[in-house]
Design goal:
The protein is about 5% helix and about 45% strand. The chain is mainly beta. The protein has a 26-stranded mixed sheet that branches. The protein has a 17-stranded parallel sheet that branches. Strands 14, 17, 18, 20, 21 and 23 form a six-stranded antiparallel sheet that branches. A hairpin with a 5-residue loop joins strand 20 and strand 21. The longest helix is centred in the middle third of the chain and has 6 residues.
Length: about 675
């Protein structure tokens, strides 16, 4: 049989350990006769293994030091009575360093119901498990299960017609002592805080039969400590102070729900100035993760969530709040990260995540900075493989034109997201640089969520951005979208604007691409548009600008004038060096121009009307005072040139000179049409 490692001696009414043999634990030597800290009973420190309490007060039930663990608090001062956890297991090669106590929370005063009781009573024999002491009786009822008391238990019995007998139990449910029958009354409270647990027997003062249904009439309440558990395995938990701590100002390590808090292979270092007591709610699972925690004197901080394989969790003293409920734990999940900071700035509204059943998930990230708000995604805010230092310079900056709209962290590395931190909290588009949106306002922010603004594009003015739009990015350059209107200009659909593209006072609706040195001013797009290279659409300002239904422009194409009439629809495709410097109506037709084709007429009246399809290529030209009206499908090719007069062309033709205009032709056959 193995010899005992220590004995418990009485020391001023307290229980202190004294070594009975020499041994070594974690490179520290314990000699026979050495005095250690103070314990509740022999369950506090295991006789097996080399675990040792060098100093400290562990004089409360539920705490166990086993294996090769050590406790060295630097003080043996006793703590005041307080609600205690049901189980604190300090095991493996754990190290508890610095003055601290492990604390639970007091339950509410729970009104007892018939469902909590059964017929019979418990005899009060010391040393007997309460279940083994259960007896049958018609004049008594008993509580079905024991209540965890540990520093907070009490019974409130205001009904003078009933009596209660309390059996005090140890943490394993073995009877320690009995409080004899107490009769209820207006001020009757039975204090059970010195017992780890208790069970109750209830009877009527006048005697006679009683059943569990009578518990309702008895109308009494009980209070206990929350059945919380904490498992520390191979953990260093240390606290440092800038001055001497006292039992009243030392750290409280708290856990206050029915989930087990697990700390496994971790180094947790806590610090604060003990001018008043501070608490750390440890409501977490922490595996192979280190934490540095700063607390504010007199305030409570929280280590809340699930953390795995993370180099460092840093908790700022501003990260306040007792995130003690079981539901709080699922809010934060961190794995395989380099560093994650928890502070009032990085997680300014963690309570909203919890209230909205949201999650904040970091996988393989580096999060020394950031601002994270609840983003309403069904799976939570999930960030994977992101280094948040790459989008940190402009965090928290506010848009001057939009109150409460700031730049916060996003799920895309190197990008921010607009966020309106007001009553109607909403997210907007992705933004790479504050300068891109510094002078931007909006009508509605949430509709821009799927859009993105890169640093090489500037939005200047007030916009309603709707849909999936990309501003800047792939080509570089300095694109700009500008609005001079006090009303929001709508960009609605799927548009990409990049390169040196310039857009001014132009509503866009539909789909399109505007890139290269393309410029688009005024006008109105309600269809699709494609512009690249040196393409331009810069007509003079019109009261009723044309509505662009289809416009494709490439290379050095230009349109320099537009029609000033309502409901005029532009349907044009241009490429190469094609130029339109004239008023052209394509409201019911389509104009296709390529190569060096040109329409150039000084007049501001409509000179060319297309009711069908007009295709111009090669060196085809309509210039001077010439004009055409197309009713059909016409190709003007070669060196076709019209410099004066008006021509109306019907049907389907391919024309390379004026001589071929309206020249009689043999009707096409089916196979040649």
């Amino acid at each position: 049989m193995e010899c005992k490692k220590y004995e418990i001696i009485e020391d001023g009414g307290r229980k202190r350990i004294r070594s009975l043999r020499d041994f070594t634990v974690q490179d520290r030597h314990v000699c026979v006769g050495d005095l250690g800290g103070y314990v509740y009973d022999e369950r506090t420190l295991a006789q097996r293994g080399n675990a040792w309490i060098f100093s400290g007060s562990l004089e409360y039930p539920g705490i166990h030091v086993i294996d090769e663990a050590i406790v060295d608090m630097g003080s043996n001062e006793a703590f005041a009575n307080s609600a205690r956890m049901n189980r604190v297991l300090i095991r493996g090669n754990s190290r508890i360093m610095g003055m601290m106590q492990f604390v639970s929370s007091v339950t509410s005063e729970v009104t007892q119901t018939p469902a909590m009781y059964e017929q019979g009573y418990y005899e009060g024999y010391a040393g007997v498990p309460y279940k083994a002491a259960a007896r049958e009786a018609s004049d008594k009822v008993r509580s079905k299960v024991m209540t965890w008391s540990a520093g907070a238990g009490k019974v409130i019995l205001t009904n003078a017609e009933y009596e209660i007998m309390c059996n005090k139990l140890d943490e394993d449910g073995v009877t320690l002592a009995t409080i004899t029958w107490r009769t209820g009354g207006p001020d009757v409270t039975i204090d059970l805080s010195d017992a780890p647990a208790f069970v109750l027997n209830v009877r009527k003062k006048a005697g006679g039969a009683i059943t569990p249904a009578d518990i309702t009439a008895a109308g009494f309440k009980i209070q206990g400590s929350v059945l919380s558990k904490m498992d520390l395995n191979d953990v260093t938990l240390s606290v440092t102070y800038d001055r001497a701590a006292t039992p009243g100002t030392a750290l409280k390590v708290l856990h206050a729900n029915n989930l087990v808090s697990v700390l496994d292979t971790a180094d947790i270092r806590v610090s604060y100035s003990p001018t008043s007591s501070s608490g750390l709610y440890v409501n977490c699972e922490l595996y192979r993760t280190n934490a540095v925690i700063g607390l504010t004197p007199g305030k409570y901080g929280s280590l809340v969530g699930t953390f795995r394989d993370t180099e460092l969790i840093t908790i700022d003293p501003t990260f306040l709040g007792s995130y003690s409920y079981a539901s709080n734990r699922k809010v934060m999940s961190v794995s395989d990260c380099k560093e994650v900071v928890l502070s009032s700035k990085t997680q300014p509204d963690l309570a909203e995540f919890n209230s909205k059943n949201g999650k904040l998930v970091f996988r393989g990230c580096n999060v020394p900075v950031g601002i994270f708000y609840y983003d309403r995604n069904p799976g939570g805010n999930i960030y994977e493989g992101i280094d948040f230092t790459k989008a940190s310079e402009h965090l928290g900056k506010t848009l001057p034109k939009q109150d409460n709209t700031i730049l916060v962290s996003s799920t895309v590395e190197g990008m921010y997201r607009l966020y309106r931190n007001a009553d109607n909290k909403v997210f907007g588009m992705l933004v790479q640089d504050y300068a891109s949106v510094e002078n931007m306002g909006y009508g509605a922010l949430e509709s821009s969520y799927d859009s993105v603004v890169y640093s090489d594009c500037v939005l200047d003015g007030v916009f309603d951005i709707i849909g999936c739009n990309v501003f800047g990015g792939t080509l570089g350059g300095a694109s700009k979208v500008h609005s001079t209107s006090p009303e929001a200009v709508q960009i609605n659909g799927n548009f990409r604007i990049e390169g040196n593209a310039q857009i001014e006072d132009t509503p866009l609706k539909g789909t399109g691409y505007i890139g290269g040195n393309a410029e688009l001013k005024n006008g109105k797009v309600e269809g699709y548009i494609y512009m690249q290279d040196n393409a331009k659409y810069i007509p003079a300002e019109a009261t009723n600008p044309a509505i662009i239904k289809n416009l494709v422009m490439r290379d050095n194409s230009k349109i320099l004038k537009q029609r000033d009439v309502s409901n005029n629809h532009v349907k044009i495709e241009m490429s190469d060096n094609a130029v339109i410097d004239a008023i052209v109506s394509t409201d019911r037709g389509f104009l296709l121009m390529s190569d060096n084709s040109r329409i150039s007429i000084a007049s501001k009246t409509v000179m060319d009307i297309v009711n069908g399809l007009l295709e111009m290529r090669d060196n085809a030209r309509i210039i001077g005072t010439g004009s055409v009206v197309i009713n059909g499908d016409v190709e003007l090719v070669g060196n076709f040139s019209l410099s004066a007069g008006s021509q109306t062309i019907y049907g389907k033709h391919r024309i390379s000179s004026l001589d071929e205009v309206n020249k009689p032709e043999v009707p096409p056959m089916k196979k040649t049409w």
